[in-house]
């Protein structure tokens, strides 16, 4: 396998190959967001070594899946077996076939494993028994499994406290592409010839998800590509959002309610605000918020001087944000919708928020540009409502979406601004920054040095107010 076939997956490829070459049976579990490339990673790395492969089916009865499972055994073994009455028999049949190969090691790939675990099917018990009773003396079993339902993979497989406790040799989380990896994929693989601004445009919509990026046509302008993929009744990604949630979560309607509410308050909401807005509470809401966080749809942040109830939940998934803002509410009839609204105030406002999320996905690159990669630091956000202090002073309140709190007694207070050219700081905005910095210092009671840091697309335009900026990070720096 040539690692040049991959963009940005070198470490994951090394892990998969390492556990194949080990001297014992191994189970490697690859998990991550739907469409991120889990199946491609395993097949491209190990496909030629497979002795058996099976893909679970979404919302398909256990009996049907067991029939499909046996059909795959028959195909690989060139024989015909009876349809298993339960999953225990199904895995017993698989074991018999694998041992009949008389090989030193056998390789099995079970794709979309969570979909195989249907209600009352006893799938997980049978799967556990299959793994726990495998005799490595007869053959080393190299078992690769993956699934898009991250919560199932983490709770029922990787973090299982029952029969599979501690049995996963190595969990592998597959993250979306970074900006740099997206640029490599679009220009090296797709031959798009995009500059960094165009790559950013694609990232703010598709969020570094390889499957979506692969659908771009290099012979079409970017806005036309967006129209083709999202607008019109036959657009291939028009219904992707709904299927994405149905495939990941049970009671997906409740999850969509939470995400839709968060999309209307871009700075985020407290648990209490979400509960009131969605009519959800207790354990159900806790489960939904935890699952959305583990599946990278939202982020959770809070100021260190606030209690647990001060947590803020913020929508960060680029694809979801774009869908809710510009796809869901379109009538689907205007096939040139995105081209027609490009450059409007609504699109510019969305781009400003989307750029902030891109920055939050590239904290490591920001630290690298600031030269603080080796300095221990915490990253969080801060907000404060308007109030009057004990001296009678009126404070306007404010919010800082990115604070890098460093162990060297320095804090970077980051302003993230999207612009088509150099960003111009006005006198009014300069005053706002100074007032907000003073409020932050007062409320946090910190003696650390506060450095105003601007993360922009093309830098800050030099004028009489730009001296307020201590550090700058440009779009090109996020591509490191």
How would you describe this structure to a colleague?
- By secondary structure, the protein is an alpha/beta fold.
- The chain folds into 3 domains: 3-173, 3-Layer(aba) Sandwich (Rossmann fold); 180-358, Winged helix-like DNA-binding domain superfamily/Winged helix DNA-binding domain (Arc Repressor Mutant, subunit A); 362-479, 3-Layer(aba) Sandwich (Trna Endonuclease, Chain: A, domain 1), CATH 3.40.1350.
- It is built from 20 helices and 14 strands.
- The chain has helices spanning 10-20, 38-46, 62-77, 87-100, 113-116, 123-132, 150-158, 179-189, 196-206, 210-213, 222-230, 240-248, 252-263, 271-278, 282-294, 318-327, 337-341, 345-360, 363-370, 427-444, and strands at residues 26-31, 52-55, 105-111, 140-147, 170-173, 298-301, 312-315, 377-384, 387-388, 394-395, 398-406, 410-417, 449-456, 471-474.
- A 5-stranded parallel sheet has the order 2-3-4-1-5, sandwiched between helices.
- α20 links the parallel β12 (410-417) and β13 (449-456).
- α12 (240-248) packs across α13 (252-263).
- The longest helix is centred in the C-terminal third of the chain and has 18 residues, at 427-444.
- It is elongated, with a radius of gyration of 25 Å.
- The relative contact order is 0.08.
- The mean pLDDT is 92.
Summary tags:
480 residues; alpha/beta; Rossmann fold; Arc Repressor Mutant, subunit A; Trna Endonuclease, Chain: A, domain 1; 3 domains; five-stranded parallel beta sheet; five-stranded mixed beta sheet; 20 helices; 16% strand
């Amino acid at each position: 396998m040539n690692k040049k076939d991959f963009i940005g997956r070198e470490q994951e490829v090394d892990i998969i190959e390492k556990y194949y070459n080990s001297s014992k049976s191994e189970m490697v579990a690859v998990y991550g967001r739907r469409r991120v490339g889990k199946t491609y990673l395993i097949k491209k790395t190990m496909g030629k070594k497979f002795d058996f492969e099976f893909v679970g089916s979404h919302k398909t009865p256990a009996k049907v899946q067991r029939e499909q499972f046996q059909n795959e055994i028959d195909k690989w073994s060139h024989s015909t077996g009876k349809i298993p009455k339960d999953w225990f028999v199904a895995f017993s049949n698989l074991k018999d076939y694998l041992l009949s190969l008389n090989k030193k090691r056998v390789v099995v790939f079970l794709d979309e494993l969570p979909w195989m675990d249907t209600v009352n099917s006893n799938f997980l018990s049978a799967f556990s028994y299959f793994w726990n009773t495998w005799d490595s003396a007869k053959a080393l079993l190299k078992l690769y499994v993956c699934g898009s339902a991250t919560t199932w993979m983490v709770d029922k497989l990787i973090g299982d406290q029952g029969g599979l406790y501690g049995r996963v040799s190595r969990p592998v989380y597959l993250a979306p592409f970074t900006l740099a990896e997206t640029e490599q994929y679009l220009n090296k693989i797709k031959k798009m010839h995009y500059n960094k601004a165009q790559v950013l445009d694609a990232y703010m919509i598709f969020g570094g998800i390889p499957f979506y990026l692969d659908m771009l046509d290099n012979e079409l302008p970017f806005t036309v590509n967006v129209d083709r993929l999202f607008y019109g009744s036959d657009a291939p990604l028009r219904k992707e959002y709904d299927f994405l949630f149905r495939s990941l979560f049970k009671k997906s309607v409740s999850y969509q309610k939470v995400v839709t509410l968060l999309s209307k308050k871009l700075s985020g909401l407290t648990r209490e605000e979400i509960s009131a807005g969605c009519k959800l509470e207790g354990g159900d809401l806790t489960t939904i918020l935890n699952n959305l966080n583990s599946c990278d749809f939202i982020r959770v942040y809070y100021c260190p001087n606030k209690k647990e109830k001060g947590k803020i939940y913020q929508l960060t998934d680029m694809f979801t944000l774009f869908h809710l803002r510009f796809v869901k509410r379109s009538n689907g009839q205007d096939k040139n919708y995105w081209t027609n609204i490009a450059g409007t105030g609504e699109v510019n406002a969305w781009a400003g928020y989307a750029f902030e999320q891109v920055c939050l996905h590239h904290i490591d690159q920001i630290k690298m540009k600031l030269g603080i990669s080796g300095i221990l630091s915490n990253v969080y956000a801060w907000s404060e409502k308007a109030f009057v202090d004990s001296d009678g002073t009126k404070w306007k309140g404010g919010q800082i979406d990115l604070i890098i709190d460093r162990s060297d007694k320095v804090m970077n207070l980051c302003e993230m601004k999207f612009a088509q050219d150099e960003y111009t700081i006005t006198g009014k905005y300069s005053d706002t920054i100074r007032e907000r910095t003073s409020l932050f210092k007062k409320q946090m009671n910190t003696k650390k040095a506060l450095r105003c840091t601007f993360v922009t697309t093309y830098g800050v335009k030099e004028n009489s107010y730009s001296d307020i900026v201590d550090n700058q990070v440009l779009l090109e720096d996020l591509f490191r």
